[in-house]
Design goal:
Elements (H helix, E strand, L loop, with lengths): L1 E7 L3 H12 L5 H5 L4 H14 L9 E10 H7 L5 E5 L16 H4 L2 H35 L4 H16 L8 E9 H11 L6 H17 L26 H16 L2
Antiparallel strand pairs: 1-2, 2-4, 3-4
């Protein structure tokens, strides 16, 4: 997995403070912005967190480049609807020797790992064979229709990989560009940084949190699982490791702050 924060709103905390200040001010935009020193900005953003006024933080957005994650993760992350996603297409990109994610639980058991890798290799062979079969069928049809051979071969391959992708596994890796506003990210971190989240998306959420905290520490100071700053929200399903989770996030914030 590789995660990079490739863009974000300039001075995100100042923008959030200005948007919030606008709600309580009778002055114009210049007056709203005037006097927003770093200290005042920090106090304003902290106040928003304390009183639960979250709509102003929607004005700050963050864009991530995410690589080496599985299609299984893709199915989970796109359930977060208040975000924008651009995903590498299996319809237009032919998967020659596709890479895949091996779950740690499978990786640590030699027999399970052997079975898993065999399944991936079988899927690759099936995908390639099916692609070639479909390509030939489409090519014959297009040539019969009088389509020039060069164009026919190109179109045949596009049609072939469009349908051959149906045999590709959830473990197959993909690339994602994701943009979300700060409020949506806070919700994402609350749900996906939790120990009850699936391991791969939890690892992604933690890395995204580390990057956003480094960019806007006040804005994201009270983020992560519910137990980091309060009581666990999972009830009987709690992992029972709140103290351990809090210590982990203190370390995570400390590491991000040094960057």
């Amino acid at each position: 997995m590789k995660v990079k924060l490739i863009a974000h709103t300039p001075e995100p905390e100042k923008l959030v403070a200005a948007a919030a200040k606008n709600c309580y001010s009778a002055t114009d935009v210049d007056g709203v912005l005037e006097g927003l020193t770093p200290e005042k900005t920090e106090r304003f953003v902290e106040m928003l967190s304390e009183i639960g006024h979250e709509s102003p933080i929607e004005h700050a957005s963050f864009t991530f480049a995410i690589e080496g994650v599985s299609r299984s993760l893709l199915a989970q992350i796109t359930r977060h609807r208040m975000a924008s996603f651009s995903v590498q297409s299996q319809r237009y990109v032919r998967a020659h020797g596709f890479e895949y994610v091996v779950p740690p639980a499978i990786d640590k058991i030699p027999a399970a790992r052997k079975q898993f890798i065999k399944a991936m290799e079988d899927d690759q062979r099936t995908y390639e064979a099916l692609t070639e079969t479909l390509m030939q069928g489409y090519l014959d049809e297009l040539l019969e229709q009088g389509v020039p051979e060069k164009k026919a071969r190109s179109d045949a391959e596009k049609h072939a990989i469009e349908d051959a992708r149906y045999v590709m596994p959830n473990a197959c890796t993909t690339r994602i560009v994701m943009t979300a506003n700060a409020r949506s990210l806070k919700n994402f971190f609350a749900l996906r940084c939790c120990n009850r989240a699936q391991w791969e998306i939890r690892a992604l959420a933690e890395e995204m949190y580390r990057l956003t905290y480094a960019a806007a520490p006040t804005l994201f100071s009270h983020c992560g699982p519910a137990c980091v700053d309060g009581a666990c929200s999972e009830g009987k399903m709690s992992c029972g490791k709140a103290a351990e989770v809090r210590a982990h996030y203190q370390m995570l914030r400390g590491d991000a702050a040094t960057e």
